[in-house]
Amino acid sequence: MEMPQDQTEAKDLNLEELEQFIETDELEALRAERDEWKDKFMRALADAENARKRGERDRREAEQYGGTKLARDMLPVYDNLRRALAAITDENRTHAAALIEGVELTLRELSSVLGRHGITTIVPKVGDVFDPQLHQAMFEAPVPGTTAGQIIQVMTEGFLIHDRLLRPAQVGVSSNTGA
């Protein structure tokens, strides 16, 4: 028994629609998989870029601040040389001129080496305003003619390594509430 022509075309049409539907589903599945892989690729690329930037930043910081511990350990040597030179009297200068010159040259060389590595001194002066970012208050005392927060004595210089505080300057601060 033969089907009328209309029914055959209807069956063929339904089969074509079905094939088209299957292909569309497969195509959509492939597109979704492609989008998923593209997203994973973009995330991996961003992670790699972030890791590169982080590595570069870490390298720069290690280069700039890697010697911090050694520098901090050398600061007492600097302080002792400064104290030795401050303790010299005029009489000592005439009797031990060569020794004193050697200490001065050693201090200058140490300062030069520290400077080459980005270490600078913080040298507050009496009368400057106390800055807790750069100074460490060792004591407070009421001193006539000063206002609260003024530096009244400098015990040791402070140091910066590039833009970071290596050691604060140790100072005495006025505790007066009025001038």
TrEMBL record:
Major site of localization recorded for this protein: cytoplasm
Keyword Repeat: no
Subcellular location: Cytoplasm
GO molecular function terms noted in the UniProt entry: adenyl-nucleotide exchange factor activity; protein homodimerization activity; protein-folding chaperone binding; unfolded protein binding
Entry keyword set: Chaperone, Coiled coil, Cytoplasm, Stress response
Coiled coil, from the record: 15-65
GO CC annotation terms, alphabetical: cytoplasm
Translocase is among the record's keywords: no
GO biological process, one term: protein folding
Family: Belongs to the GrpE family.
Subunit text: Homodimer.
Function, in words: Participates actively in the response to hyperosmotic and heat shock by preventing the aggregation of stress-denatured proteins, in association with DnaK and GrpE. It is the nucleotide exchange factor for DnaK and may function as a thermosensor. Unfolded proteins bind initially to DnaJ; upon interaction with the DnaJ-bound protein, DnaK hydrolyzes its bound ATP, resulting in the formation of a stable complex. GrpE releases ADP from DnaK; ATP binding to DnaK triggers the release of the substrate protein, thus completing the reaction cycle.
Protein name from the UniProt record: Protein GrpE
Originating species: Gemmobacter aquaticus
Gene behind the chain: grpE
